[in-house]
Write a structure and sequence with these properties.
There is one protein chain. This protein is an alpha+beta fold. It has one domain. Helix content is about 35%, strand content about 25%. Strands 1, 4, 7, 8 and 9 form a 5-stranded mixed β-sheet that branches.
């Protein structure tokens, strides 16, 4: 009787231990996925913030362009596009990445150099690498309906995490208001 009871207790303890080890492995995978999701989101947000700052500094010197995939292969900085992503991409959506027109990539790749290396390491198989550099797209939405001296812009950005299975897409509407000042004189 003692032998049977001991064997049953041993089986129960073994099952509990296996369930605990399985749970620990699952929690580790969940934590890794959450970390990768946060890395993708932070990279996309970083590139979106850069695009907004670039827009403020360059809106007066940049002309509107009907953007295509060829637009971004010849430029070293973002472009202000007259067409939005929702009307431009093959998928007709900013949520489907990578953004493509006719199968070719669309958008400015944001990967600044810090020291001697790129901020977003895209070397496959290395620690803390990204599956690709974040991508930014700026579209002119036109004059704001409530303010005559304001123009609205849509800034879209997306980034992979450590693999192509983790993607973050962010979007903001950015408004720039113009004011006129007197030119001086007598």
């Amino acid at each position: 009787m003692v032998l049977i009871t001991t064997i049953l207790l041993l089986v129960v303890v073994t099952l509990l231990a296996l369930a605990m080890f399985r749970g620990v492995g699952l929690e580790t995978r969940i934590a890794g996925n959450v970390m990768d999701k946060q890395r993708a989101l932070q990279a996309a947000t970083s590139s979106e913030t850069y695009a907004e700052q670039w827009l403020v500094a360059n809106v007066g010197t940049n002309t509107l362009t009907v953007c295509s995939s060829a637009t971004f292969t010849t430029t070293a900085s973002p472009e202000i596009c007259s067409n939005t992503l929702a009307t431009s991409t093959d998928a007709l959506s900013a949520a489907v990445v990578p953004w493509n027109i006719g199968g070719a990539a669309l958008g400015y790749l944001y990967n600044p150099v810090v020291g001697t290396t790129n901020l977003f390491n895209t070397s496959a198989g290395t620690a803390n690498s990204y599956a690709g550099a974040p991508t930014v797209y700026i579209a002119d939405l036109g004059t704001d309906a409530t303010y005559a001296n304001a123009v609205d812009y849509q800034v879209d950005a997306w980034s992979y995490g450590g693999g192509t299975a983790t993607v973050a897409v962010v979007e903001s509407t950015y408004q720039i208001r113009y004011t006129a000042t007197g030119g001086g004189g007598p």
